[in-house]
Amino acid sequence: MQPKKSLGQNFLRDETVLAKIIKAANLSADDFVVEIGPGEGVLTKELVGNSKKIICIEKDENLAKKLADNFQFSIFNFQSILNDPIFNSQNKTAIITGDVLKINLPELIKLNNFKNYKVVANIPYYITSPIIRLFLETKYPPKEMILMVQKEVAERITAKPGQMSILAVSVQYYARPELLFYVDRKAFWPVPEVDSTVIRITPLPSPVASTRHPLPITGEEDNERKKFFKIVKAGFSAKRKTLLNNLSNGLHISKTEVKEILEKAGIKPTQRAQELGIEDWEIITREISANQSE
Ligand code: SAM
């Protein structure tokens, strides 16, 4: 079968890298696992042997069918999975054919009692951010994600203040990301044009009394979250401009007011968005809210 470039089909061929992913996933016989893009099943096979139940979501129907035939996995169409649980006493691995971004993830997780699951996957790189967002913003986030991503994207996700981007903020708002190990492009067939890195993303717990945003997200928190990201987006809108300019232009607040807000937050108006950490954005959001309710 000819690999489809449009679906990001680069298959892992390196046994050492495979062993390192399995070690990093630190699975136990009680673990529930979700794999996105099982492809030919190299990783799936290892995951099956090291966990309790697995849901694999594969967009390429031919690949999914072949995988189900080769390993005797149950196969489901993504429209048919929302009425009954997909597991019974006979099966522990289910392949769902369909687009991971179109699946009703919370229903799938709830219906199959997949709470406390891990995501372990060599994901298709063309949808890296939407996949991460899907799992972090859902009502039932995983306890951990072990993901192979493009090396440069891994570095952006795990960036520290000084190098931050909207992507870094949108992952670090929900989770703690870590770089695990580098993977050379030659570990795949066909060889892609980029190198890779395996990362771990650990969603933050729901602390009772903390400034962090507890998960799952309720209506009120959702408003807070929207406000937070509106401010972050305004802050990053023009790369070379200062926070003072970007926030004032993007949020339609006078420069005098923005200056006051930033001063109260202990941030210099001449700083730039990439210099701020999550807590700085949280303080700015709080100060803007306080300012608006005065
Ligand atoms: N896991 C396999 C491996 O390690 O060799 C394959 C990884 S390959 C980088 C990405 C896989 O994701 C491919 O099998 C591709 O068909 C699948 N895929 C692409 N887009 C997808 C989508 N939107 N939803 C689910 N799977 C997708």
Proportion of residues in helical segments: 25-40%
The bound ligands are: S-adenosylmethionine
CATH superfamily of the largest domain: Vaccinia Virus protein VP39
Structural class: alpha/beta
Question: Secondary-structure map with pairings?
Answer:
Blueprint: E1 11-12, H1 15-25, E2 32-36, H2 42-49, E3 53-58, H3 61-71, E4 74-77, E5 93-97, H4 105-111, E6 118-122, H5 128-137, E7 144-150, H6 151-157, H7 166-172, E8 175-183, E9 188-189, E10 196-203, H8 219-236, H9 243-251, H10 255-264, H11 278-293
Parallel strand pairs: 2-3, 2-6, 3-5, 4-5, 6-7
Antiparallel strand pairs: 1-9, 7-10, 8-10
Helix pairs in contact: 8-9, 8-11, 9-10, 10-11
Short description:
The chain has about 290 residues and is of the alpha/beta class. The protein has helices spanning about 15-25, 40-50, 60-70, 105-110, 130-135, 150-155, 165-170, 220-235, 245-250, 255-265, 280-294; strands at about 10, 30-35, 55-60, 75, 95, 120, 145-150, 175-185, 190, 195-205.
Walk me through what this model shows.
Helices cover 39% and strands 18% of the residues. The chain is α/β, with parallel strands linked by helices and 294 residues long. The protein folds into 2 domains: 5-203, Rossmann fold; 219-293, rRNA adenine dimethylase, C-terminal domain (Helicase, Ruva Protein, domain 3). The strands form 2 sheets. Strands 4-5-3-2-6-7-10-8 form an 8-stranded mixed sheet. A two-stranded antiparallel sheet has the order 1-9. α8 crosses α11 (278-293). The longest helix is centred in the last third of the chain and has 18 residues, at 219-236. The model is unreliable at 207-211 (pLDDT under 50). The protein binds S-adenosylmethionine. The site of S-adenosylmethionine has 24 residues, from β1, α2 and β3.
